[in-house]
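Hi there,

I know you've been waiting on this one. I reran it after we fixed the sequence typo, so this is the corrected version. Both the input and the resulting structure follow.
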Amino acid sequence: MTYDVIVAGGGPVGLACAISLARDGRKVCVVERSPLSVLADPPFDGREIALTHHASNWLKDAGAWAEIPAESICPMHTARIETGAVGSPPLLFDAPAEGPDALGHLVANHLIRRALYRVAARTPGVEIRAGEGIETARHDARSASVTLTDGTKLDADLLVAADGRFSKLRDAAGIGAIVHDFGRSILVCRMHHPEPHAHTALQWFDEGQTIALLPIAPDGRDGASSSLVLTLPDDEIARLKTLEPEAFNAEITKRTHGRVGPMTLESPRCSYPLKAVYAHRFHAARFALIGDAAVGMHPITAHGFNLGLKGQEVLARAIHDGPGDAGAPSVLSKFARTHRLATAPLFAATNAIATVYTRDEAPFLAARKLGLAVANRLLPFKSAVTSMLMDRR
């Protein structure tokens, strides 16, 4: 029961990390509390992931892209940002004329999880222990180990926590985190509508609510489907989650001002508290944080999974370039330094934008309308944001 690395958490970033390390010749064990049936066929969770080109290229190289049904991959040609009343001038980001023809691709989170599980399950060097929780964890200068709920002890050179933004392993390691509670929840579900979405992702900062409509299926003769991401106070989200479908459809159509026609619910409704998390440190002795355990982003920039995927890449590269010991201090310091430089500015900027664009006091309303108008005229700014959204590196 000895490994190079133990990964705690079988979510998409944890599985990606195991694949990266095993392809580099490491022996990896993934410990996941969910049963194998859930790992092999995860349920719909409402989340649609806007994959950058860097992320989709990584998935292709790993063999996971081929495991996602082609009809479930929706290209995003335009990102449209609005504030205030319908009809206000939008801020538009289009795919560059010289190509590629999409800013990125939208794929359901549960399909990404399933694809990565399939790859991990057939990758030599990866062992998956599903249906097992971690009872205790120990890591010091010499080694790392965990004891599972069934009493089994696993030893490794490095323990990696990929157990979410409210990571128990991070807390147990004594690593604190900045937690930005926005005092809101989000409701996510799939809605059908008669008007085409034109492969456009809408982010609309309306007064009293924030709405995103993300294209998730090709436009057809009978309309299209979009993922609704609605941000409201917790009690409002709780009410909408249990509202009868017909009443829910009518309210969402009203909230979206009928801009894509009458909307019809076509999936379960899922909700999540809106909290952003940034760990004070990304490592301790023979211990590293990746994914949301390190950086849990506000979904406004749609970069959460993309950053998580990059984080595990940075860790795998640091281990590859290191002295051969996956948990060596030099390896973890290099990983933490690189990942912090890549994530800290984006985390701060995202939270600032989310705060300004979700406040409805008059000064904030005026500032965000002016901000969009000015940004729309700054071609270098738009080009820089487009490059960030696409991330083709």
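Quick highlight: The longest strand covers residues 177-193.

Best,
R. S.
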